[in-house]
Amino acid sequence: MPLVLGENLRNNELAQEAATIIDACVSCGQCMVNCPTFRLLQDDWDSPRGRINLMKEMLAGQPPSADLQLHLDRCLTCRSCEAMCPEGVRFGRLLDVTRELIEPAARRPLRERLLRRALRAVVPYRRRFTALLRLGQALRAVLPAALRAKVPQKRDAGVWPERTHARTMLVWQGCVQPALAPDINAAAARVLDRCGIRLEPAAAGCCGALSHHMAEPEEALAFMRRNIDACWPQIEAGAEAIVMTASGCGAHVRDYGALLRDDPLYRDKARRFSDLSKDIAEVVAAELKAGRLPPLPVQAPSPDRRIAYQSPCSLQHAQKLKGVVEGLLKHAGYKLTPVAYPFLCCGSAGSYSILQPELAAGLRAAKLDTILATRPKLIATANIGCLTHLAETSPLPVRHWIELFDETLTAVEAAQATSGA
Predict the structure, then answer these.
(1) Residue 344: which of 76, 73, 46, 27 has the closest Cα?
(2) Does 342 reside within a domain?
(3) pLDDT at 64
(4) Rounded-to-integer distance, Cα 370 and Cα 390, Å
(5) Whole-prediction pTM value?
(6) Domain count of the chain?
(7) How many of the other CB atoms lie within 10 Å of CB of 175?
(8) DSSP code of residue 318
C-alpha cells in the first residue's frame, strides 16, 4: 500500500521523493544481514528496515524526533543494503532526503551543532585542514598517545612525472588527501605516465560530500558548482577524464549530474562532469586491457606479497566496481587473502568516525579482526578515509593499492634493465 504523506508534507518535493523510494520496500529484512550497525548493535531500529519504519512515521505526519535523528545519524550511508535489496530500494538517496527534511525541525544539542559546524568549517578547505594537520604533526611527539594515533606522520609526495603526452587526464585533489597522503596521486601519475597519459591536478576543492551527507544541501551544491567552474577550462582544453584516487569523492562526483539536474545553468555541465569521472582502477584496467602498460611477469607470489584488500563501500556499493582492484592486484603478483564479510564497512564513512567515534571504533575492530585472521603482510585499500581510519590502530601498514601497483612496475622495470645490461 503506497505511503500517504502527512498533510504538512503533501506538497513537499523531498517528501514525495522519499515516499516513492519507500514504496519500493517490501520489509523483507534481507538487507539486515548486510547492515554493519545492525550486526554491531543488534537493534532493529539501527537496520535499514527499522530506519525506514521510523521514516514512514515521520512522513505520515508525526513530528521529527531526536530518536529518529539518532538512528539516522548512526547509519554509515555505506549502501551495503542496496547491494542486497531484491527490490532495488535506493536507501542512500532516501537517507540523504530524510536527513534534509528533519535537520531544520529536530534541533540538535549545542555540542553537536558546534562539532558539526567546526567540521564543515575546516575539513572541506584544503589550506585550513593542511595548516591544522601540520601543526599536529609538529607537536606529534608530545601529544597524548590517543591523540597522537589520530595524527599520521608527514608523507613525502614522491616524484611527479613531467613528460608531455598527447593524452591528458585530470586527477582529483579533494580536501584532505593532498595533506595526508600526497604520494597517492603521484603514484597514479607515474602509472599513467607509462601509458602515455599526462595526469594534471584538477583545479577543484572539496567535492561537497561532507556537506551533502550532513544535510547542508545548498552548501554542497555551492562546492559542486565551484568545482565545475574551476575544472571547466581544463575539460575544454581536452582532458579526457577526471581520475579519482579517493573512492569516496568519486562516488559523490558521479552524482553531480543527478544532484544538479534542476539547475538550468549547470545541469548539462554537471552531467558531463559526472560522465568524465573515473576511478583510477577503471582507468588502469582499461589501459592494461589495451596493452598500453608494460607486461608483468606471471610468477607465484612470494610470502611477503600476501596482502588483504579492504574494498571501500564507496567503491563496491556506490560505484559498483567490485572486483576491479582485486583483479589488478592479482595481475601485479599479489596474493589476496580471503577476508570474511568483505561487504561490511570499516567505520570510516567520511565524518562518521568523528561524529560516531564509539560505533566507528567497534566497526573498525571487527574489520581488522577479519583481516588479521588471514595473516597478511599489509592492508591495501582505495580510499583515503578508510586508509587513515584503519591505520590508526592497525598493527600492519595500510596503503593505497595504486602505490603497490606503481612499486611493482618499478621493480619489474629495474629487473628488466638489469637483465638487459
Answers:
(1) 76
(2) yes
(3) 85
(4) 13
(5) 0.93
(6) 2
(7) 27
(8) I
Choosing from 102, 136, 151, the residue where a domain stops is 102
Mean pLDDT score, 56-80:
92
Model confidence over 172-216: pLDDT tens digits?
999 999 999 999 999 999 999 999 999 999 999 999 999 999 999
Tell me which residue range forms the domain holding 28. Answer: 7-102
- Of 115, 111, 95, give the one whose Cα is nearest residue 103: 95
Tell me what pLDDT residue 302 has. Answer: 65
Q: Is residue 313 part of a domain?
A: yes
Would you say residue 309 lies in a domain?
A: yes
Asked if residue 350 has pLDDT above 60, the reply is: yes
CA distance 335 to 316: 20
Q: Which of 21, 30, 67, 19 is nearest to 46 (CA)?
A: 67
DSSP codes joined into one string, 342-369: TTS--S-TTTHHHHSHHHHHHHHHHHHH
Last residue of a domain, one of 54, 84, 102: 102
Tell me how far the alpha carbon of residue 162 is from its chain's centroid: 29
Q: Three cell numbers at 33?
A: 544481514
Q: Per-residue pLDDT for 38 more than 80?
A: yes
Look up the CATH number of the domain holding residue 43.
1.10.1060.10
